[in-house]
UniProtKB/TrEMBL annotation, chains A, B, C, D, E, F:
Belongs to the acyl coenzyme A hydrolase family. This is Cytosolic long-chain acyl-CoA thioester hydrolase family protein. Keywords: Hydrolase. One of its GO terms (molecular function) is long-chain fatty acyl-CoA hydrolase activity. It comes from the Bacteria. CDD domains: BFIT_BACH. GO terms for biological process: acyl-CoA metabolic process; fatty acid catabolic process.
Length: 142, 142, 142, 142, 142, 142
């Protein structure tokens, strides 16, 4: 039987595990990682999103994982030098052998209390066993 | 009138420009950029794809560009330490203010003549003027 | 009158601000940042601690800051390749022109639910004005 | 009998292999890799040349290689921030156990169609066997 | 009997070894390693100090070492972009299983003969054996 | 009158300045900067040599400099992971507008007192004025 997907249906054990899987990374955007427009490289943001998503997925299942895809990603706002960027990743879907993790980046002014949503993406990971074949990502302990 | 999209309809000037926009980057996959499975980080691959796509788009239009989105990206094959990875980017669609660039990564053995397709993605860029507003990416010279 | 120091005496506005100043960064310890014992460089840990403490202090006061000192730092546990490290920084003392931030690093296994305290440090920052002279870090709004 | 050296004398198999050995890398010169004159570090250019030459040599012979020397290198033009740099490497000489690879760097404006030759160098590599001793780099298949 | 600590009491063999343990590293402070105040990150300085201290300690004892603590570090002067920074590390204390290394950073103008002391720190390392347990750092050869 | 070149003929002021121009950098060769043979990349060594030579030349003349060439460089010994590498640069020739700097890399075992010469190179720099034109590198104060 496939694992249920909606928050209502999930076992409370899985929901607790999802809560604890959240991963946060905050970075100061210094000139060394910005382009000649003085904004963060899109590719750098993608690399951060994949790494933070990977950590969140690992925290959920505690198994070796490989990235299998990223869904469409929209860069809504540029992230300027001299700001802070917070990357927040959380598991949103648990399949048999795969996990989906949503990642959001928020841009925060350094010198006033102001914060906006900048980028959202969803990454899919597959758990692999010692034989590098897909393996079950979540076992409901009875 | 929007610019035409199919290769057949494009002006020969645009086609010539697209040919010249191709950008290639080859990398040796050394242990310093691999994870504990001894394969390239997915995020590193995404960062390379965005940068190479950006260069191809710049070569096409010679205007300041920002990344606006990446389409769904599938990681078909892992890229192991001790191989070569070639990233090839080429403009595939020219809109009014935006460009789409296809990027493919091929993995090549170091020590025998063998090469496979590993990752494909499409990145969209918008040309921006001095006022940071979208501007035309391509002007057909009459 | 100097600002009060104990949690009990602090104004509730300051306490609320301190709560919101917490900064978290989680990292996967891959071979690219470990030494030949396969453990994280002490210096890399120090650099992460300073950066995370700087972000926490910035979130508290929203003013330009410079590092003025780090107190004695004990490396209680080594952080091995193939684990996760979480750096958590929080303001613990507010002076007239300076802030103290406590930073802790926890090491977490990738493949089982196990987490230990590894390193603790306290960094002191001074707020500086346009003239690069120390300036007040916190103004109690009446 | 030593392998012949002039293009005319080379076997067509070797010539075909040399053609396919070309390696290209294009980079955007962002502020993070320039010095305080806003131009690319000479040392960074040297590192790129060695890596691209190494890949070209590997593509030719598919054997483990070590750098043994670089010939005199002239830096004819500085490479400014905000330009593109293309590194192109190609095998130019095949010895018994060594290969010579020519590497050229071209600097290309981002915002107009203009390209100039900037740096040329020749790197020599030796093929090594499992015993780390020099081994034959090319075997003419009869 | 514990090893003696004052320079007068140390054996001449140990003193000679301490002299030879000095490690020096000089760096040009380019924009890629400075923050948005155009000065070196405090954390980067800490990482350099730990690495240089580690090398000095290794040169003294030629044994595997781990960082166990850093004493209070004062950042007396900021290190601006466009200057040189010299890190000098030297063993100052030899215990049974541990070593203390003093590290100083000097900031030097690029374009005039002017040099000032910027940062001082003391790092403690412990020698470890194959079993990762503390082991003697210095054996007086009779 | 051109400046004299042999050590005997140089003014004592110039000789004193050359003595003080020496620049030393020591590095621990960790896996993050080695290739899949577990030895330092040739290109990384070249980048270090250029940077250390640049600092030595700057210390001599205290003027803005650009790299104009590197002479033939021989890589006599590979530098393995788990060793120390010391780069030592010193001015060896003073021309009207240019300087030659010799750079040597020594490889030193971490765990025994053993040191060997690995790489030697000579880099030429030209002093440039505000107009980016060559300018005199040394003025004999009478």
């Amino acid at each position: 039987m496939p694992l249920s997907q909606t928050p209502e249906d999930r076992s409370s054990a899985m929901n607790a595990r999802i809560e604890k899987s959240e991963a946060r990374v905050i970075k100061a955007i210094f000139p060394s990682i910005t382009n000649h427009h003085n904004t963060l490289f899109g590719g750098e943001a993608l690399a951060w999103m994949d790494e933070t998503a990977f950590i969140s997925a690992t925290r959920f299942c505690r198994k070796p994982l490989v990235t299998v895809s990223s869904d469409r990603i929209d860069f809504k706002k540029v992230i300027p030098a001299g700001s802070l960027a917070e990357i927040i990743a959380k598991v949103i879907h648990v399949g048999n052998t795969s996990l989906k993790v949503e990642v959001n980046i928020f841009v925060e002014d350094m010198y006033r209390d102001h914060r906006e949503h900048a980028i959202r993406g969803v990454f899919t990971f597959v758990a692999v066993g010692d034989d590098r074949q897909p393996t079950q990502v979540w076992t409901q302990e009875s």
